[in-house]
Amino acid sequence: MRRLGGEEAGELMTANNAVPPVTVLVNRLRTEVERVRSALGEAIPNITPGRWVPDAFSVRGAGGVMDLPGFAEGWLIPMDEAGALPVLALDLSPGQRVLDACAGGGSKSALIAGRVQGAGEVVAMDRSPRAVRRLEVAIARLGLTMVRPHLGDARAAGEQWPGRFARVLLDAPCTGLGTIRRRPEIRWRRQPADLGRAAAIQRELLDGVAPAVAQDGILVYSTCSLEPEETDEVMDAFLATHPEFRLDDPRPSMLQAADLVDARGFVRAWPHRHGTDGFFVARLRRVS
Asked: Residue 19 has what DSSP assignment?
């Protein structure tokens, strides 16, 4: 309420209580957008093209995502539109070396692979053996032959691969407070002290991955949280201690979502304003 005012805070709470649609993105390595549009349209009466992200579709009344036509064939990547914004901010080109530093189940690695068109190198790193196993399943379903799973801690990425990657994505572990509409249990699990703990890990991860970025390369930091402790304050602390990086305008690589970029150049997606999960994205360029 201090940040948004009472009326808008109420609108956010209402949006967090609404059931979101199932949202999927097209896996460019397996099929074409029109093929997916046709298959979904024949099976589901309520399908809407993405508002902010190309190749996205929202569907209602379809049951589980694994029941959608094309899922088993690897055509579909389940993901809220806001979750794809960090990948757009990377400004990817075919043949680039890319590090997905906290890859989780690999959804963002899959989007990255589609945009480097199978011609680059995508290292999908995670410290959790369970996440790496999930990633291996996703690689098989989605045909991600150029994605290389790597079990390891992103805080050591810069030491392991100094200056190796043209693009680095750090979709950092966070409180998840932007995803309450999809994960309502968060509102009972999270405590105020969790913000400080999450921010400390986020700062460590940024320090760890920064040296892996090549000269003139791009580092994208994102969280599915809109809390200042995990967003602006983390960025301010990083920029104060890393003069080799500067903020970079993400709008040229995400024209469809340019309205989500604020005066500082940060991307902020809000459930009540934009119909997405809550997400924060910052793009930085290594200048020295």
From this structure: P
Q: Give the percent of the chain with pLDDT over 70.
A: 100
| C-alpha R_g of the chain | 18
Task: List the catalytic residues.
Answer: 224
* CA distance to 13, 26, 39, 119, 141, per residue, from 31 (Å): 38, 7, 11, 17, 13
Shortest CA distance to 20 belongs to which of 78, 86, 107? Answer: 78
CATH of residue 123's domain is 3.40.50.150
What gap in Å lies between CA 233 and CA 217, rounded to an integer? 23
Residues 70 and 85 in one domain: no
The total domain count for the chain is 2
The residue behind tokens 């983390």 is 234
| pLDDT tens per residue, range 107-157 | 999 999 999 986 889 999 999 999 999 999 999 999 998 899 999 999 999
Question: Residue 223 class from Cβ within 10 Å (0-12 exposed, 13-18 middle, 19+ buried)?
Answer: buried
What does residue 215 show for φ and ψ, rounded to 5 degrees?
Answer: -55, 130
Q: What is the pTM of this model?
A: 0.96
